[in-house]
Queue: 2 jobs
Job 1
Amino acid sequence: MVSEHAAQVLVASNRGPVSYALREDGSLDSKRGGGGLVSGLSAVEDKLWVCAALGDGDREAVRRGVSEPGVRMLDIDAGVHADAYNGIANSVLWFVHHMIYQTPVEPVFDAEFRRQWASFEAYNRAFAEALAEEAGVGAAVLVQDYHLSLVPGILRELRPDLRIGHFSHTPWAPVDYFRLLPDDIGEQLLRGILGADRAAFLTRRWADAFIGCCTEILGGTGRTRVGVHGLGADADFLRRRSREADVDERMETLRGQVGAGRKTIVRVDRTELSKNIVRGMHAYRALLEERPEWRERVVHVAFAYPSRQDLAVYRDYTAEVQRVADGINEQYGTPDWTPVLLHVDDDFARSLAAYRLADVALVNPIRDGMNLVAKEVPVVSDDGCALVLSREAGAYEELGEDALVVNPYDVSATAAALHEALTMDVDERGARTKRLAAAATALPPQRWFLDQLDALRA
Ligand code: G6P
């Protein structure tokens, strides 16, 4: 029975807006997350966010009944969650949509995969059941991302009265690549999302790929509408936050580390296979090699924050990033100049400081749903910043005209683009930064979310 106080707007995602850590004295420390969804939802009243408990702190919070208003954390069995999140979502679905398998040897879909898939189904079912319990009659439910692809289908069966949306924050694989998945699994994923009234994506390109998969594999998208909402940067928040004292302090520290009179090539990412951090460093090495005039005159400021460290490939990649950075520093560094400044401890204020002082921002993912760094830098930049941008990032659709666009696999072309960016005329750089900032903020998070809600209810 649905209570009359049940929520009218529900959001479901694996990672919620808050997380808990257990302190040594046994008390719980809560931390609020950031990101487009958090700011997007801030304008909405009478809402409930359903998310998974992700670690021991979260699980303890659920057990103690500690929660934030408007948030329901699901304490899904830790083994089931690990199979669903690490096994299926991050090792299979993320790899398919970002096309990062080394296909001669992987993927391998065997009995272990089938076992994990059963957990993925159970985890999606747990979300669908919680949503069915919490949603008011005719409520709007916005299901987020590849972790929860099966939720719309299950929820539709449980609660035909609801308006269900699904939003993909990742790219969508083209049909030939999507077909790596076992046939029944691919079909189940598509049918899961098609349980929604509306399936939405960050760019036209990913939406078309999804429609392509549905058409080829199922013969069409059925009654589901497909839409595009290109999440933009949160200009008001960024401009205010980036002028706070802690950011100023970090700018001073960074300036000291870079050294007076030197230019900076800045990148900020999760240490993520799809972000192409290693090739970015190879391009920087090629720049120093082929254009010795840049030696001692530029620093590659690379912030690569820990991500998905339960997975061996991510740990290996993290080590590789460190190894390549160390190699460049050993080869070219001088007593007075460290060519690569690699920081791996997550610090948002320091990221903003780097955005402000960057001469060049390097955003070269092999594939990326949107990439908000590309949109945030031009908004925050103090003196204008040249953007070297991969054509495989979703942001390319909106920023391509004023960025220096690269094929992310082409190290030589990326090195050439870095040189062009470093030597760009100041006035041109300033004018481009203004246009980039305007394009980047065309759809701020709150409107991005409300547009989806309106479209779902229409
Ligand atoms: C991408 C995904 C999000 C995810 C985020 C961080 O942006 O689309 O769903 O939350 O990466 O990854 P994590 O695995 O740490 O949640």
Job 2
Amino acid sequence: MRQSQLFTKTQKEAPKDEVSNNAQLLIRAGFIYKEMAGVYTYLPLGLKVFEKIKNIVREEMNAIEGQEMLMTTLQDPEVWKKSGRWVEESENETSGLPWFKTKLSSGVELGIGNTHEEALASIMSHHINSYKDLPKYAYQFQNKFRNELRAKSGIMRAREFVMKDLYSFTRTMEELEAYYERAAEAYLKIFNRVGLGEVTYRTFASGGAFSKFSDEFQTLSEAGEDTIYVDENKRIAVNKEVYTDEVLKEVGLDKSKLVEKKAIEVGNIFKLGTKYAEAEGLMYTDEEGNQNPVVMGSYGIGLGRVLGTVVEVHNDEKGIVWPEAIAPFQVHLVGLGNKDDVISAADKLYDELISAGIEVLYDDRDEGAGKKFADSDLIGIPNRIVISEKTLANKQVEYKKRTEDDVEMIDLEKITTKFK
Ligand code: ATP
Ligand code: MG
């Protein structure tokens, strides 16, 4: 894409009320726009990254037999009353389900979805009857709305955000346990692929109705709202909320080997047991003809939470440093000067890179080198190619990785092969 055509501009300053590093950088670089506290729009550059993360998550969910669907935001209160989670908005802080609710013009109340266990169990009750119909796994990328009390972490804690939520439907607890481990592995693959692998730990956290623990995926960062205790050798951690001597013994961790760290919860998986199936009448007939409630699990990842976390982990004083796999573009081609021969050589190289299937942002704007370099560092594309009168004198370009300081001179005719 030609940068002269991009409608977003970079900014020197982020909004004064924006305290988080991720949102400050993303706003300044033109990836997101802050509508209000906890509510952000993804601009073209931001959407590119968002979609790349989404595709990685989708590939890994498809690999564990997830079937993609898309559920509604508007929720029928009756479905939620059955499980007892249609809690009053005044209980938002204590119940852990920070509802937004709305009304039809007739005055009838509706929910604005914050999670979908109940709704999907209810749908599944129309499709699952027998043990032969199980196991099944379904997921979606869907906007969740949560009336979060505090929204100081930028896109990592939004009041409207897209979650990938997968739900498993199995016959037995054993079948759930086995799938749960596959899902945990898929999660580690996802965090690896988006560039958070080294700093993300599977973490024992408070469970739900049916199991003592849930598993969180926690990424080490000073910007994190959680405190965890990490065993770096075993690559396992315990959330402070369940950190007791008894728990450490139970999970086989040695207190003297644990290090206290701040961390961001990028994902969370739960064994739900039969609670929601029982509430919503999701039953199956087993081989003996008996009726049993379906055993469920739920598996969530916030895409914006992941994107914001990547920015928190990968930045420097000049801007964002995108990991290759989710960068908005692979190459930032920067043309310097407005001499005709430079412009035509840069145009030609741009066409050549595009024809080779490389994603390029081409800074063809009529701006000085200082502004172009500053913007390039702020936007954070992994590879920068500079073409100028000086480099052309030797039929070369200047190449630099965003993660490195040193530049390399490469022959103009060889540069494209570097990205194949
Ligand atoms: P937290 O403890 O951070 O409030 P949670 O435990 O309530 O999150 P879950 O219900 O476990 O969140 O949601 C699954 C995933 O969705 C989280 O692991 C996180 O990646 C993401 N997520 C949750 N709340 C938000 C939010 N307000 N903004 C962005 N992503 C979120
Ligand atoms: Mg959670």
